[in-house]
Specification:
Length: 450
């Protein structure tokens, strides 16, 4: 109960930090303190570049609603996150304006939802202390905190994927009654639907996560020699949404941009990978492009590029890029370099956690999804800046694993200090007893001689 109360206090503190940062960024942009970094609406010029476009889309949707009504607003083609930001503008824009302050109520909800998912994921995998430590690390992660104030789709898609991972993790750790299974399954299906609408170009990650969970659940039932009806119901509802949703709903994109398609065959997946890599040739920040000339025409090309994709996915931006001046100066490179260096440490610590928790089935689900997701980004994303932002959700999963090992090491260190103090106290007590005995014997000898 005490930890639960502390968790709520920490969540309120995180929310206060987010609101304060958003306000500070808006004021910096409004008064043109850093005109080359933020515009007058507080939207990043040197990062989250697409936020300016999405802001205009959200403002246009507000105009549609006010002029032509709700039905026209609903029928207007627009990304899901921009549509939701337009609702925030409708509710709060009259007071705060059509800027990052007007979007803050929704962005704050995303931010707190992500931290809550991290906390519960860490608690489900290990202990509540691990979840709290992981959430605290992510809450103050500089570039994530900065991007969470912007009008981009990452916060929504990240929250959906983390919540879905939480649902899939509970499938491997608990046994549901049919009634609870229906509620959890509907929630899983809803998260799958939201993720498709928000970020359909990462749909294969959801397919991968569900497939791994299904295989692990089958193994769990075989080992337990028991058919877990409730857990199977959850998976069936989630898989049904996984199959039906892409064929019935269009993944929302900007007008004029071709929406993504769900791909299951090898040839179509390779074709989409090549198309997405080619799209980064027209990316605004060209200085951080990586291997833009590489294209995949066959399975052999993909296999041969595998080591390089691993290197890019896990280690880009590379150390030489940390100190070079990019398209927007040297400061963003230095910050991204420091965070990448920190993640190198996280990889090592997460690896220790994987070894020590190798019998933990839930941990393997999170580790495999994070690892394969980062590797897939190494194949598809040919720009270091874009990779840095899209990779956050997989970094968060690895930070949860690292937090377990950090917490374990901290407890071991505290135990060592306690034992050392106890031994020191015993040693001092023994020395005092010996000294007292020596004094007593000396006094007796002196008395006898006298």
């Amino acid at each position: 109960m005490r930890l639960l109360k502390s968790t709520w206090r920490y969540l309120i503190l995180a929310g206060a930090i987010h609101v304060a940062l958003t306000t500070a960024i808006f004021l910096i942009g409004h008064f043109r303190v850093l005109p080359n970094t933020f515009n007058e609406d507080g939207i990043g010029i040197t990062f989250a570049i697409d936020g300016r476009t999405y802001n205009q889309v959200a403002i246009g949707l507000v105009g549609q609603w006010k002029t032509n009504g709700f039905i026209t607003w609903l029928n207007t083609k627009a990304p899901l996150h921009s549509r939701l930001h337009s609702v925030s503008f409708m509710l709060f824009g009259w007071l705060l304006g059509y800027n990052i302050l007007g979007a803050e109520p929704l962005n704050l909800f995303y931010y707190l939802a992500i931290l809550s998912c991290i906390y519960f994921l860490g608690r489900e995998l290990f202990y509540a202390e691990t979840g709290l430590l992981a959430a605290a690390i992510i809450a103050v992660w500089p570039t994530f905190l900065l991007h969470s104030t912007q009008l981009i789709r990452d916060p929504l898609s990240n929250a959906c994927l983390l919540a879905l991972m939480l649902v899939l993790t509970t499938v491997l750790s608990r046994q549901f009654t049919p009634r609870n299974a229906i509620l959890i399954g509907v929630g899983g299906a809803g998260l799958v639907t939201l993720f498709w609408l928000a970020r359909g170009n990462m749909w294969n990650v959801v397919i991968l996560a569900v497939a791994i969970t299904l295989a692990m659940l089958a193994g769990r039932m075989i080992c337990a020699r028991r058919f877990m009806t409730g857990n199977v119901i959850v998976m069936l509802l989630t898989i049904t949404a996984l199959i039906v949703v892409p064929s019935r709903l269009e993944s929302t994109t900007l007008p004029g941009v071709r929406p993504p398609n769900a791909t299951l065959t090898v040839s179509s997946t390779i074709k989409q990978m090549s198309g997405r890599r080619a799209g980064f040739r027209s990316y605004t920040s060209q200085a951080s492009n990586i291997d833009t000339d590489v294209q995949f025409n066959s399975t052999g090309d993909v296999v041969r590029y595998l080591p390089r994709a691993f290197e890019i996915g896990f280690f880009a931006p590379f150390p030489r890029m940390w100190i070079e001046a990019g398209s927007f100066g040297r400061a963003p490179r230095l910050l991204s370099g420091l965070e990448t260096l920190a993640m190198y440490f996280v990889y090592v610590v997460a690896g220790l956690c994987v070894w020590r928790e190798r019998r933990n089935l839930k941990m393997w689900l999170v580790f495999l999804v994070a690892t394969i997701g980062i590797l897939a980004l190494g194949f598809v994303v040919a720009n270091g800046g874009a990779l840095f932002r899209i990779r956050y959700v997989f970094w968060m999963m690895l930070i949860v694993l690292a937090a377990k090992e950090i917490n374990r090491s901290y407890k071991s260190y505290r135990t060592y200090l306690t034992v050392r103090r106890t031994n020191s106290t015993k040693s001092l007590t023994s020395s005092s007893v010996v000294s007292n005995d020596a004094i007593k014997r000396t006094s007796e000898i002196s008395s006898f001689q006298t």
